Amino acid sequence: MADVVLKGLNKRFGDNQAISSLDLAIRDGEFVVLLGPTGAGKTTTLRLIAGLEKPDTGRIEIGGRDVAGQAPAERDVAFVFQQYSLYPHMTVYENLAFPLKAPVRKLSIDEIDRRVREIARMVRIDHKLENRSTRLSGGEMQRVAIGRALVRRPSIYLMDEPLSSLDAKLRSELRLELKRIQKELGSTLLYVTHDQVEAMTMADRIGILAEGKLMQVGTPREIYSNPANLHVAARLGQPHINLLPADLLEGARPPAGTKTVGARTEHLEIAVSQNANAQVDWIEHLGDQNHLHIRVRDHKLVTLADPYIEIRPGDRINLTLRDPLYFDAGGQRLA
Amino acid sequence: MATPAPIARRVRGLSDRAIAWAFIAPAITLLLAINIFPLLWAIYLSFTNYRANRPNAVVEGVGLRNYERVLTDPDIWQAMQTTAHFVFWTIVLQTVIGFALAYLIDRKFRGHAFWTTVILIPMMLSPAVVGNFWRFLYEPQIGLFAYAASMVTGIPTSEIRMLGDVTLAPWAIIIVDTWMWTPYVMLICLAGLRSIPDYIYEAAEVDRASGWRQFWSITVPMALPFIMLAVLFRGIENFKMFDMVTLLTGGGPGSVTEVASITLKRTAFESWATGRASAFAIILFVAVFGLANIYVKALNKVKQR
């Protein structure tokens, strides 16, 4: 395990600036999640660290040493690809043992066997060790792929949306398991996803990427309650943050220069009263919660309401703000 | 009003099954006429003393005598050995060179598409053309092959008689067949190599597998079903090799390049021992068919891994 530092990374593919001056420091034993939409440069960042791509400019340090000139094999990283990328002609056991058989490791057959079985138990695939890797379900394949990374003790684990192709139930199970395993091993892990739930639940710190730029890095709490700009604010929160003109609702104390007010559920107070300023258009019942679709003049808002609230579509309500987020004309957050 | 109805119903009444039969009947008839019937007829003839140059002679059943004579004939065993030698070496050379070429082309260097086309040219020629112009190339006095070989080895051209020398002639036909059909093997191997996704190599790279190890534990096993397919096709083709050998050496000098199909043709159309030739043909057919079946089983096993 080691610290990983990225300094001023740039990478361009043709006309597309995939990564622009990216700085990131990952501490030893830390679980960092890069969150961003498709094409934000998440995968490219991982591939640059692994050495599968070369940066145009910038520095990559693993454990204090500059790895710029090193091949992937020399960098001592483990990579979990988005596609399962198992060796299709090998059994689960052979797939897990493959990285351990590299001659540089000089491991005995007994040692390899012990490690393979230990990791197989950890990712709960030990009952299928002799199966061909192509004869597994999607979830099992991805466990093997994760296991093949975990079986080594590299400087850093790089994981590229490893759970994205799994169904919801398996995804939430593996999410917990992965977090547990990472804590157990104390491993350094850089994880890429577009799923905010994965980011919020697993990360020690989250980095928000957009168009090749790292917008903000911080703990899930910080990113959620103190977003640096509109983009970051819009990445997190379900339902989506409501972006309103500064003077639309009462209760705000916008600082000078405020153009937009960002209001999530916790920033909105609903009162059923005579002097109503809003109307409920319709309600989505999700069981444990309701999504209220509200109209204030020409603006539409979505907010959560507890399932017991006595509101029906068409009702008039009074909506006020409580400590919302303020953004200037450029989308930057104002204190 | 009642009369037209039954006709319409009868036409419309053709069942799907009947329509299906109507469509495949011409193909089946042809197949029966030019494949199945001759095969059955040859089986019948193989148990008789029929001679095609004496159509009016009395045909008698001879039981298994034809088979007995074929299997105990030293000339035929010699021809089988010649065939085995030819098949073995053409497959080894074509597979090794074909795979190596495919591996190089798959590196996608500059101009790889152009070189692919160039490499494929021999395969597109007619075997008759290839046989003829290699005969000129092999010509000791004026042939380019002898000239080049003499430059490299220092042996005078008059002694490089590729088609006339008993030790060189078998290799002469192996060289021509390899020259002509290696591109075919390369094409199949290339398809195999292209079917291996890049991320497998990237995973192996990150897993610290050396280039050597990647080649042997990923490239070769994953391309193996394709390689085996190429070997199967070339094996069946060369087992019945006839045209090119006939054009190049006609089985000579002596009978050192007399492969099974040439012996078969001589038995049938020079000795006119039609019954015995039929028996030989059936034996060859069963042998190729049996070997190919065993091989396909192995191939399927490899594919299912």
From TrEMBL, chain A:
ABC transporter domain span: 4-236
Gene Ontology biological process terms from the UniProt entry: carbohydrate transport
Molecular function in Gene Ontology: ABC-type transporter activity; ATP binding; ATP hydrolysis activity
InterPro entries, per the entry: AAA+_ATPase (IPR003593), ABC_transporter-like_ATP-bd (IPR003439), ABC_transporter-like_CS (IPR017871), ABC_transpr_MalK-like (IPR015855), ABC_transpr_MalK/UgpC-like (IPR047641), Mo/tungstate-bd_C_term_dom (IPR008995), NA-bd_OB-fold (IPR012340), P-loop_NTPase (IPR027417)
Places the protein is found: Cell inner membrane
Key words of the record: ATP-binding, Nucleotide-binding, Transport
Transmembrane in keyword set: no
Protein's membrane topology: Peripheral membrane protein
Keyword ATP-binding: yes
GO cellular component, one term: ATP-binding cassette (ABC) transporter complex, substrate-binding subunit-containing
Similarity comment: Belongs to the ABC transporter superfamily.
Protein name: ABC transporter ATP-binding protein
Organism field: Ensifer oleiphilus
Species lineage: Bacteria, Pseudomonadati, Pseudomonadota, Alphaproteobacteria, Hyphomicrobiales
